[in-house]
Amino acid sequence: MSDVRSPAQGDAARSAAEPPLPANLRRNAPLVPTDSAASRALAAVIAILTFLAALCAGAAEIAVSSAGQWQSSVAQEVTIQIRPGAGRDIEADVKRAESIARAAQGIVGARVFSKGEAERLLEPWLGSGLDLSDLPVPRLIALTLSDDGQPDLKALRTSLTEALPGVASLDDHALWLQRLSTMANTFAGIGIGIVVLVLLATGLAVVFATRGAMAGNREVVEVLHFVGADDDYIAKAFQSRFFRLGLRGGAFGAGAALLTCALAGLLARMSRSGPTGEEIEALFGTFQIGWRGYALIVLIGVIASLVTATVSRFTVRRFLR
Amino acid sequence: MSAGKNTGSLLSGAEEPVVRFESVGMRYGLGPEILSDVSFEIAPHSFQFLTGPSGAGKTTLLRLILLSVRPTRGLVSVFGKEVSGISNNALTGLRRRMGVVFQDFRLLDHLTTYENVALPLRVQERAEASYRAEVVELLRWVGLGERMHVLPPLLSGGEKQRAAIARALIARPELLLADEPTGNVDPSLARRLLRLFMELNRLGTSVVIATHDYSLMDLVEARRMVLSDGRLRVEGP
């Protein structure tokens, strides 16, 4: 072959006159055309689906972390309830229960709710301004558990039942904790389910787009075959094109979701002073998704890109078979 | 003239033929037979023209050699390999030993002239730096040194033709198939391109040029494979 070009090489004057290789010569442009209306539409679809999946994951993360906060705060406390008994001095029973509780292992604090406080707890149900002095309103003692070590609540329950039979009972909130845990798991499950569905929808969109791209680039594929490209090489060319599209769509979608979450957190903080803000804060904490939530959103963006690349590769291989 | 003996070889006939057709028939779907009982061999280092009227089946015959279609009947061997039931990997291996110039050029419009010509080397996953000088040199030799940045839609017919030829030559094929390679160029450039093909043949490449151009064929004493009514006749040395 070198002899074929030898006239060019042999002519010294012509060689000297030849311009050097241009520095800006484009050398490795993608083999499959990337900038088409269909590509932009697919990137937009991936961005929207990623945005929805990321928002859904963010919402599930808020619910799960809020449930976790409630659980940990509820699990830090147990309550002794003293019911008024016939012929018994309820104040003496409360004091007795308090002293038993304070002596128990793993209890670091006990707060006795006064009669007035106990009656105020009933106000949301009975209304204010009522004289409850004739009603047998039970009294509560909130016990704070130590962080380290497991308090022996069974022994405390036995001691209270023995000392104040039929009057005192210990509530460790196990039922509430179980319900909270179930609710948190349900939210997490729904979130994961929706994210999986959205990623599946992304995959299907990519299958159709890839088949469209293959049909639209039939001539490119044919030429690549004729110049010696194998199926794997062609699949890689399409995969790289779709990975870039997926990355662009995923980045836009995840970026929009991050921005939305940050904005929602900001708005929630701004409206915290009002009654609505308090309700929201009571339900969702500070409406912050935390670093874990942000990482989850970024991860979903990355997964959407990888799904796009992998699905396109498989689709091309099937198409070429 | 017996097709089997007409190999067009410039060297001894001891080597295995590059292409061998034995009683090949070809039809598209349920249509009429485009090629009937075609038998011939292309010897290594040989040079031949493939000619015949329009619609005689020249392009189909080239497509059969290129393995882009399979014969309806008969036997096709390329580089000593019988191609029925050939694996995809083996097919790619055979195609890498061929260069092809299409009648309609088949340049990729989104790649520059340089990228189009470099394509056969790029798909072999060679580093761009390893073939850059080679591609530029060939582009300058075919007169496209100043047009290597340009996308094919902006090239003239002749420039596209030359880019397509450069692409076919860049990987130093053992077999070159050219479908009307001088159809869009002026006579002087046609002669220059023919000299390029002959030079390539002198260096060992088997060349098959499909053409209508009798004035071009008259410039070279070479075997002529004439297709007419789906049948092949071999003329010349």
Automatic annotation (TrEMBL), chain A:
InterPro entries: FtsX
Chain ranges passing through the membrane: 41-64, 187-209, 245-268, 293-316
This protein's record includes keyword Transmembrane helix: yes
Top-rank taxon: Bacteria
A single cellular component GO annotation: membrane
Keywords noted in UniProt: Membrane, Transmembrane, Transmembrane helix
Region described as Disordered: 1-28
Record bears the keyword Transmembrane helix: yes
GO biological process: cell division
Protein name as catalogued: ABC transporter permease
From TrEMBL, chain B:
Annotated ABC transporter domain residues: 19-237
Subcellular location(s) of the protein: Cell inner membrane; Cell membrane
Assigned protein family: Belongs to the ABC transporter superfamily.
Pfam family, one: ABC_tran
Assembly and interaction partners: Homodimer. Forms a membrane-associated complex with FtsX.
Keyword Cell division attributed: yes
Gene, per the UniProt record: ftsE
InterPro entries assigned: AAA+_ATPase (IPR003593), ABC_transporter-like_ATP-bd (IPR003439), ABC_transporter-like_CS (IPR017871), ABC_transpr_LolD-like (IPR015854), Cell_div_FtsE (IPR005286), P-loop_NTPase (IPR027417)
Entry-linked NCBIfam families: FtsE
Topology term for the membrane: Peripheral membrane protein
PROSITE patterns in UniProt: ABC_TRANSPORTER_1 (PS00211), ABC_TRANSPORTER_2 (PS50893)
Keyword flag Transit peptide: no
SUPFAM superfamilies cross-referenced by the UniProt entry: P-loop containing nucleoside triphosphate hydrolases (SSF52540)
Identification of the protein by name: Cell division ATP-binding protein FtsE
A GO BP annotation: cell division
Role of this protein: Part of the ABC transporter FtsEX involved in cellular division. Important for assembly or stability of the septal ring.
Entry's Gene Ontology cellular component terms: plasma membrane
UniProt GO MF annotations: ATP binding; ATP hydrolysis activity; transmembrane transporter activity
Keywords: ATP-binding, Cell cycle, Cell division, Cell membrane, Membrane, Nucleotide-binding
